[in-house]
């Protein structure tokens, strides 16, 4: 008599969450901002301030980049009250190089508001009312800091859930579908651990390329694996080519070797950060190149720098000049030694080029 080999039993939604949590208990990553499962079991609870700070810093930034910078922030401002009492310029200076500078301004605004209220609220709804906290961050803080049942969807979670359910809707249109499916497996208890477990699974096992399906704790429930199409998900919409923008920027140097910097407008890209004076990032007719210069001078063109932002490529022509005697800066400008200026990356590139060509300008 012939016998058929039975197919493996599919995991239920409850089985998925239990299997994931068992895996997380044994394999959780050690991160500076995380209270691991063993510590939580022993009664240690996360500091909402530390969770919030890490989540803001991790937006559009890698763990490897954030980890050392997070420790620097926490050492300088150990509590939300400390951050609220700090000048905005200090926060912006410390943030230099992390990108998406609106986050730094909102970080300070949020700290001021939270300190005034005596602490962070513990619900998604209340957290979303705070500056700089959107749907994802509110869910992450509610789940991780307060263990509320909040569905936390980041890039790693999107990948895991889209594969688990073989969601073939292209991103970003698939986001609501992914959240609906995630809600079905999200446990009532240990919401924060489950969220971090999914994130770790996406980072360590369910990677974009060459996922380690043989050691995945929820592989028996994975529709993508069953179809042999793990790397097909999540489905990506065709990429649009990034536009190119241009502009001009001016490095004015005084007899001390300092450069003239100015504070950029609060709104817009790099808002509130220090930078060199320059034009808007749009093509500048030759006849109007020097209209955005800080003064009339013998400006020498020394080359250009390029930088890629999330949505466009930028090229800036860099000009350099020596400050004439009697030049007076305006209120929002400062003379600063280039090595002491806290600058975003694109401005660091321009300053570096200017320094390489500054002989004879002092």
From TrEMBL:
<comment type="similarity">
    <text>Belongs to the Nth/MutY family.</text>
</comment>
<dbReference type="GO" id="GO:0034039">
    <property type="term" value="F:8-oxo-7,8-dihydroguanine DNA N-glycosylase activity"/>
</dbReference>
<dbReference type="GO" id="GO:0006284">
    <property type="term" value="P:base-excision repair"/>
</dbReference>
<dbReference type="GO" id="GO:0046872">
    <property type="term" value="F:metal ion binding"/>
</dbReference>
<dbReference type="Pfam" id="PF00633">
    <property type="entry name" value="HHH"/>
</dbReference>
<dbReference type="InterPro" id="IPR044298">
    <property type="entry name" value="MIG/MutY"/>
</dbReference>
<dbReference type="InterPro" id="IPR023170">
    <property type="entry name" value="HhH_base_excis_C"/>
</dbReference>
<feature type="domain" description="HhH-GPD">
    <location>
        <begin position="57"/>
        <end position="204"/>
    </location>
</feature>
<keyword id="KW-0378">Hydrolase</keyword>
<dbReference type="GO" id="GO:0006298">
    <property type="term" value="P:mismatch repair"/>
</dbReference>
<keyword id="KW-0227">DNA damage</keyword>
<dbReference type="GO" id="GO:0051539">
    <property type="term" value="F:4 iron, 4 sulfur cluster binding"/>
</dbReference>
<dbReference type="InterPro" id="IPR011257">
    <property type="entry name" value="DNA_glycosylase"/>
</dbReference>
<comment type="function">
    <text>Adenine glycosylase active on G-A mispairs. MutY also corrects error-prone DNA synthesis past GO lesions which are due to the oxidatively damaged form of guanine: 7,8-dihydro-8-oxoguanine (8-oxo-dGTP).</text>
</comment>
<dbReference type="GO" id="GO:0000701">
    <property type="term" value="F:purine-specific mismatch base pair DNA N-glycosylase activity"/>
</dbReference>
<dbReference type="Pfam" id="PF00730">
    <property type="entry name" value="HhH-GPD"/>
</dbReference>
<keyword id="KW-0004">4Fe-4S</keyword>
<keyword id="KW-0411">Iron-sulfur</keyword>
<dbReference type="GO" id="GO:0032357">
    <property type="term" value="F:oxidized purine DNA binding"/>
</dbReference>
<keyword id="KW-0408">Iron</keyword>
<keyword id="KW-0234">DNA repair</keyword>
<dbReference type="GO" id="GO:0035485">
    <property type="term" value="F:adenine/guanine mispair binding"/>
</dbReference>
<dbReference type="InterPro" id="IPR015797">
    <property type="entry name" value="NUDIX_hydrolase-like_dom_sf"/>
</dbReference>
<keyword id="KW-0479">Metal-binding</keyword>
<dbReference type="InterPro" id="IPR005760">
    <property type="entry name" value="A/G_AdeGlyc_MutY"/>
</dbReference>
<dbReference type="Pfam" id="PF14815">
    <property type="entry name" value="NUDIX_4"/>
</dbReference>
<dbReference type="InterPro" id="IPR029119">
    <property type="entry name" value="MutY_C"/>
</dbReference>
<dbReference type="InterPro" id="IPR000445">
    <property type="entry name" value="HhH_motif"/>
</dbReference>
<protein>
    <recommendedName>
        <fullName>Adenine DNA glycosylase</fullName>
        <ecNumber>3.2.2.31</ecNumber>
    </recommendedName>
</protein>
<dbReference type="InterPro" id="IPR003265">
    <property type="entry name" value="HhH-GPD_domain"/>
</dbReference>
<keyword id="KW-0326">Glycosidase</keyword>
<dbReference type="InterPro" id="IPR004036">
    <property type="entry name" value="Endonuclease-III-like_CS2"/>
</dbReference>
């Amino acid at each position: 008599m012939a016998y058929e080999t039975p197919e493996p039993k599919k995991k239920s939604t409850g089985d998925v969450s239990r299997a994931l949590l068992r895996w997380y208990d044994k394999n959780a990553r050690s991160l500076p901002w995380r209270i691991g499962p063993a510590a939580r079991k022993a009664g240690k609870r996360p500091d909402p301030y530390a969770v919030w700070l890490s989540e803001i810093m991790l937006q559009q930034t890698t763990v490897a980049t954030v980890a050392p910078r997070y420790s620097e922030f926490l050492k300088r401002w150990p509590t939300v009250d400390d951050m609220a009492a700090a000048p905005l310029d200090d926060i912006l200076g410390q943030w230099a190089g992390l990108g998406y500078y609106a986050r730094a301004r909102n970080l300070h605004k949020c700290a001021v508001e939270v300190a005034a209220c005596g602490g962070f609220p513990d619900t998604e709804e209340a957290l979303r009312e705070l500056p700089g906290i959107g749907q994802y961050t509110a869910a992450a803080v509610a789940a991780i800091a307060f263990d509320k049942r909040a569905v936390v969807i980041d890039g790693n979670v999107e990948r895991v859930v889209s594969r688990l359910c073989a969601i073939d809707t292209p991103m970003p249109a698939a986001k609501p579908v992914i959240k609906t499916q995630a809600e079905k497996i999200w446990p009532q208890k240990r919401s924060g651990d489950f969220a971090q477990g999914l994130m770790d699974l996406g980072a360590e096992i369910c990677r974009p390329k060459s996922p380690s399906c043989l050691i995945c704790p929820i592989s028996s429930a994975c529709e993508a694996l069953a179809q042999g199409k793990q790397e097909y998900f999540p489905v990506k919409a065709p990429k649009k080519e990034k536009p190119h923008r241009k502009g001009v920027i001016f490095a004015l140097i005084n007899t001390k070797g300092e450069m003239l910097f100015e504070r950029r407008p609060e709104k817009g890209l790099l808002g509130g950060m220090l930078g060199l004076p320059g034009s808007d990032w749009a093509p500048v007719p030759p006849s109007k190149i020097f209209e955005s210069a800080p003064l009339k001078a013998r400006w020498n063109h020394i080359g250009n720098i390029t930088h890629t932002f999330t949505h466009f490529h930028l090229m800036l022509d860099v000009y350099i000049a020596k400050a004439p005697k009697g030049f007076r800066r305006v209120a929002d400008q400062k003379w600063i030694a280039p090595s002491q200026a806290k600058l975003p990356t694109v401005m660091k590139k321009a300053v570096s080029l200017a320094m390489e060509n500054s002989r004879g300008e002092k």
